[in-house]
TrEMBL record, chain A:
Family: Belongs to the ABC transporter superfamily.
Domain of life: Bacteria
Domain annotation ABC transporter: ranges: 2-232
GO biological process per UniProt: zinc ion transport
Tagged with keyword Glycoprotein: no
Entries under InterPro entries matching the protein: AAA+_ATPase, ABC_transporter-like_ATP-bd, ABC_transporter-like_CS, Metal_Ion_Import_ABC, P-loop_NTPase
CDD domains per the UniProt record, alphabetical: ABC_Metallic_Cations
Protein name: Manganese/zinc/iron transport system ATP-binding protein
Keywords: ATP-binding, Ion transport, Nucleotide-binding, Transport, Zinc, Zinc transport
Keyword Transmembrane set for record: no
GO MF annotation terms: ATP binding; ATP hydrolysis activity
Family matches, as Gene3D superfamilies: P-loop containing nucleotide triphosphate hydrolases
UniProt xrefs under PROSITE patterns: ABC_TRANSPORTER_1, ABC_TRANSPORTER_2
Automatic annotation (TrEMBL), chain B:
Species assigned in the record: Rhodothalassium salexigens DSM 2132
InterPro entries linked: ABC_BtuC-like (IPR037294), ABC_TroCD (IPR001626)
Lineage of the species this protein comes from: Bacteria, Pseudomonadati, Pseudomonadota, Alphaproteobacteria, Rhodothalassiales
Pfam family, one: ABC-3
One GO cellular component term: ATP-binding cassette (ABC) transporter complex
Transmembrane portions of the chain: 46-64, 71-92, 104-128, 149-167, 192-220, 232-257, 263-281
Name under which the protein is recorded: Manganese/zinc/iron transport system permease protein
Main location: membrane
Chain intervals for the UniProt region annotation (Disordered): 305-331
Location of this chain's protein in the cell: Cell membrane
Family (UniProt): Belongs to the ABC-3 integral membrane protein family.
Keywords tagged on the record: Cell membrane, Membrane, Transmembrane, Transmembrane helix, Transport
Compositional bias (Gly residues): 310-331
The UniProt record lists the keyword Transmembrane helix: yes
Amino acid sequence: MVDGLTVTYGGKPALEDVSYTAPPGGLVAVVGPNGAGKSTFIKAVMGQVSATAGEIALFGKSARSNRSVVGYVPQRTSVDWDFPVSALDVVTMGLYRRIGWLWPVRAKHRRQAFGYLDRMGLADYADRQIGQLSGGQQQRVFLARALAQDADLYLMDEPLAGVDAKTERTIIGVLQDLKDEGRSVFVVHHDLRTVPEYFDHLMLLNTRLVAAGPMSETFTVANLQQTYGGHMAVLPGGATAVVD
Amino acid sequence: MAEIVRLLSSYNTAVVLLAATLLGAAGAVAGTFALLHKRSLVSDAIGHAALPGIAGGFLVALAFGFDGRNLAILLSGAALSGALATVMISWIASQTRLSEDTAIATALAVFFGLGAVLLSVVQSLQVSGQAGLDSFLLGTTAAISAREAGTIAVMALLVALVGLGLFKEFRLLTFDAAFAGAMGYPVRALDLGLMALLLLVVALGLKTVGLILIVAIVILPPAAARFWTDRLGAMTALAALFGAGAGAVGAGASAVLDDLPTGGAIVMTAGALLLISLVAAPRRGLVAQGVVAARFRLARRREARARSGQGLGQGLGQGSGQGTGEGRARP
């Protein structure tokens, strides 16, 4: 639950007075033009940027004390791909909290992590250095790591950006599973064509919250036009296109 | 030869060698994470920033009636001014419009400049022991007592153990700090912990390596190790081995050859290891990559020749001169 969230960078608001209560067990698409504060929203809920004003509560507790329940899939560009870790090493990181401080990673943890990799169809790539995987495989590794976290709330920053069709299907399947298990998932997503198909709730952001709610009520031409402003064209026949 | 063995086997030298070896290993363990966390230049700034701490520590020790050379006071001063430099760097980088590399260069220059001024103040005083402060710049084993070396050895072992104990946490911090934060790890505290380890290495290395070259024992061994492996565990172990080897060989050489500064000898050894690694390492080394590139070019040329041969055949079959012309154009 987010109430009156405002985040500013150097005096300019990146997010202004955003309030939203996530449905338990729902797939929420976070949609908006470039610079609308989508990543900022994710980072604020994660506590990576601090809110100038407003409250963030996770499952009824203040976010600060309850952070370990958040699963996270970062934007692809934020990772050092030459780092000396294998795909399995990365997935194991999702288990670190359960392994505990100072304890080393043991064989049973590696087996567990391997299970998540396998679920992503990456069993054959466990020992690859992450830079030597394709973009789609890298994305699935990070999703496997998020699954290993076993969190109740997931935040994913553009997991579907630039991935191949197989990866997209795998990721959508996992999102469905997470939803069926009663977890909440926020996904920053760019492709308006697939938004209504993949998600059942929608947050439209453009610094302020333009609209939020169940997909059928929120995904309307009027709302989208308000979100994208002049960058949005309604094509004949009701189709829409975003012009960046 | 017998002379060398005699020099190295004296009790004092043996302890100093042990200290330099452990220091090399500890520096490499902390350095592996510093390198991966893009903190190489910060390590250099911390080293240079130790100088005002040493000179200031000397003055403070004198003012309170201690011997100016009291190692505990000098090292505390070095760690303190190094810590101030890191605070200054992160403040400039986060609160002003200056970039981080500008912040690092600024802190390094300002602190080292202040140190040079304080050092000249110390040298103008007519007190005993001030001459020894110079040795902190480039390091010397001659000035280290067995007791000091023992302290350095124990502390270095401690640094290495803390670094290895927090291996998993540091791996997470250096690979993906945002994710660490999402999992509820205190990212800032971990970052500070890593900086504290670097500060300790710098302080411990002052007498052997000297503050000007201290960055080398932190960065060169892990940089060399990175060429041999894609695994963090193996990289850390190899870096520790390289660092220990450089420490032992460098300190040994300077014990045998009186005029050789220890810091220079250790760094040259580490530099040689890095050079060998970047040239000869399998897969990531220059030779291996050159071979791969050459094979690729050869395969392409063969393919092109096969294709132009085919074109030649077709050209002849069709009775046109185009194919032969193309064939002749290629050297």
